[in-house]
Inverse folding.
């Protein structure tokens, strides 16, 4: 339950030093709820780490942590501490002589972030001597998206019921909301969409707004703004208008009044997230209007209050089934320049749907006149739900570091996101009311790493894994090395045993758990796994080059050339962009068929390695968590074998190639 905020006692000598150096917490100036939260966290954290609860005097000569802003800097320090470059949310941690440590910031929220950063520094083995660290977030909006329904089910959630206990809101505020806020603030998340993008109109009625407002009140001191997913047809469905046409004056008026009403109860409301004309959701196209018409209508309603619209680009339709991967670009690119300045288009990391591996979404960098926000999935809809260990840091990093070649070389996804006038990143939350929050102990790391990369999109997944392992499991170097090793190998293992070589969407239909490459009889072509792998006696893979769907040309020229060419396509994306014959030779020296077998086997073997590494940590980790992880790894290994055997049996059958010896046919 404590997540990475465990604050376990430090080793005895370090503990003694910290007792001296942090005997007092001094926080001059008005004690706002945010400043109070910072002080409380330091008291809690140092109390745990040093096993001595600090005092909170008005001032202290030495042995103190001082939380200061330019206007609360004590007289003797005036002119001596620079706050330059910290911005509104950044912080500086600075050791002064005489056992004084400063947390300096321009705002209370900067002080809260600085307090968490100082505690993280101590938790991961850092000391207070010679400290001078400055940091500030590179993106304005660092958001979680909850796919939580009013009945407390969570779409694609594997961690129990929604943490939002709507039935008891607004009168009862679960203590979890505060711990949720602390955990998010500790990594710098500053926005949260409370409800599912498949939204219910009722969320915008007064009694639900009141519930959202109560949550917002709890989150506010932690710098977290509340947003809501809005159902596009709400005014019509709630009986207020005869249509939901975004150009209809009555509809526009309803939304404007709705925004006024929301801001009257939630003055810092963030805005609306909208899934429109996607998977059956209503939208402006129902009235012959464009995504821009729809987004701008909501943007106009929010504008006077400073709110924004996050308009999702996740669209694909049954009427154009040539290549689902092309549809978002085809629909949105022509609208570039038409969106209001308080709209951002929220684009999934890849063109299909949160697969274990996809190329980047072609819309990154393709809409220079429009703010684009990246959407990642933290919950593991396509990566084995909560039982499979898959650390997503390397996947996020892979996407963020990919060069889009838009506007020249070196324009990585991270760089483009950071340069947007309305900059942001969103992660579909993996949080629920399970005791461990995320469905498994290791899935907490995905929440953590999303937050850390949202703060600093050019960060390293490996560094973050080490940090998380130290805070969550143990400060022992060997334990950290081993756990980090497991984490860093885990996502590629999943790619290998589920969808290697650029394959995608082979999961069981609907639930997306387990293999089903044979399914090919569903109503919509792009729901069928067979649509994606296209395996038959001749070969396997989706031709997205000029001889096929030509999706490759949606990328900037260097990428289009790289991906479109069989010789230069990165091997991990081969079958995403190309159709290959089973016996074609690959640079690895293996044929396509042998390479496929190799990857499936390698994935299974990697899980075996994870199991053995974990088994070796038995006495180094507490028994309860040790057992939980062991059990899940055993499930993962069985299911990796299931994936391998089922997929290889199927591909062997369609290709007429021999099944590798030892492969079990599924019953
Ligand atoms: O990943 C798919 C999911 C849907 C989800 C949709 C979306 C919220 O299978 O459950 O709906 O994407 O992102 O809108």
């Amino acid at each position: 339950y404590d997540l990475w905020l465990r604050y376990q006692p430090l080793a005895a000598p370090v503990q003694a030093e910290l007792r001296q150096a942090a005997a007092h917490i001094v926080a001059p100036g008005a004690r706002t709820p945010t400043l109070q939260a910072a002080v409380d966290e330091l008291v809690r954290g140092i109390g745990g780490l040093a096993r001595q609860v600090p005092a909170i005097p008005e001032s202290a000569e030495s042995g103190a942590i001082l939380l200061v802003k330019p206007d609360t800097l004590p007289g003797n320090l005036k002119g001596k501490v620079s706050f330059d470059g910290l911005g509104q949310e950044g912080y500086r941690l600075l050791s002064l002589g005489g056992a004084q440590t400063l947390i300096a910031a321009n705002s209370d929220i900067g002080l809260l972030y600085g307090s968490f950063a100082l505690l993280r520094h101590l938790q991961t083995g850092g000391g207070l001597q010679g400290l001078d660290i400055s940091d500030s977030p590179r993106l304005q909006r660092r958001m979680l998206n909850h796919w939580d329904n009013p009945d407390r089910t969570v779409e694609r959630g594997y961690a129990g019921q929604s943490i939002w206990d709507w039935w008891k809101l607004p009168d009862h505020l679960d203590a979890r909301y505060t711990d949720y806020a602390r955990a998010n603030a500790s990594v710098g998340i500053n926005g949260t969409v409370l409800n599912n993008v498949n939204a219910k109109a009722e969320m915008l009625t007064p009694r639900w707004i009141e519930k959202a407002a109560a949550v917002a009140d709890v989150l506010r001191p932690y710098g977290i703004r509340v947003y809501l997913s809005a159902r596009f047809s709400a005014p019509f469905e709630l009986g207020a208008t005869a249509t939901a046409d975004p150009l209809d004056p009555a509809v526009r008026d309803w939304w404007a009044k709705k925004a006024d009403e929301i801001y009257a109860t939630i003055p810092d409301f963030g805005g609306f997230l909208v899934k429109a004309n996607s998977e059956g959701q209503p939208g402006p196209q129902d009235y012959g209007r464009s995504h821009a018409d729809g987004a701008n209508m909501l943007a106009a309603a929010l504008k006077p209050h400073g709110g924004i619209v996050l308009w999702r680009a996740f669209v694909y339709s049954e009427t154009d089934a040539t290549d689902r991967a092309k549809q978002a670009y085809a629909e949105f690119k022509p609208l570039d320049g038409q969106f209001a300045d308080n709209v951002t288009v929220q684009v999934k990391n890849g063109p299909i749907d949160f697969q274990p591996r996809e190329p980047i979404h072609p819309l990154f960098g393709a809409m220079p006149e429009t703010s684009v926000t990246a959407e990642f999935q933290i919950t593991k809809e396509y990566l084995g739900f909560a039982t499979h260990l898959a650390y997503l840091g390397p996947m996020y990093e892979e996407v963020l570091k990919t060069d889009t070649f838009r506007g020249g070389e070196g324009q990585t996804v991270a760089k483009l996101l950071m340069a947007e006038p309305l900059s942001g990143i969103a992660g579909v939350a993996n949080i629920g009311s399970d005791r461990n929050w995320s469905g498994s102990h290791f899935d907490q790391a995905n929440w953590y790493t999303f937050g850390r990369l949202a703060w600093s999109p050019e960060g390293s997944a490996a560094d973050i894994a080490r940090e998380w392992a130290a805070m969550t499991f143990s400060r022992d170097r060997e334990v950290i090395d081993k756990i980090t090793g497991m984490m860093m190998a885990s996502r590629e293992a999943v790619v290998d045993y589920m969808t290697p070589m650029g394959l995608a969407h082979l999961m069981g239909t609907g639930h997306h758990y387990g293999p089903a490459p044979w399914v090919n009889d569903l109503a919509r072509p792009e729901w069928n796994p067979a649509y994606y792998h296209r395996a038959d006696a001749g070969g396997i893979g989706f031709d997205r080059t000029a001889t096929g769907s030509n999706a490759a040309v949606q990328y900037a020229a260097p990428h289009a050339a790289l991906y479109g060419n069989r010789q230069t396509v990165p091997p991990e994306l081969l079958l995403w962009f190309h159709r290959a014959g089973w016996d074609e030779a690959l640079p690895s020296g293996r044929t396509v068929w042998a390479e496929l077998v190799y990857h499936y086997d390698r994935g299974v073997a990697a899980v075996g390695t994870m199991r053995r590494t974990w088994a070796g940590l038995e006495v180094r980790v507490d028994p309860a968590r040790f057992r939980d992880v062991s059990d899940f790894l055993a499930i993962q290994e069985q299911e990796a074998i299931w994936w391998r055997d089922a997929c290889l049996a199927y591909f062997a059958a369609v290709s007429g190639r021999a099944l590798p010896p030892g492969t079990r046919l599924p019953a």
Notes: The domain at 496-542+579-655 is CATH 3.90.1330.10 (Alpha-d-glucuronidase, C-terminal Domain). Residues 179 and 272 are 25 Å apart (CA to CA). The chain has a mean pLDDT of 96.
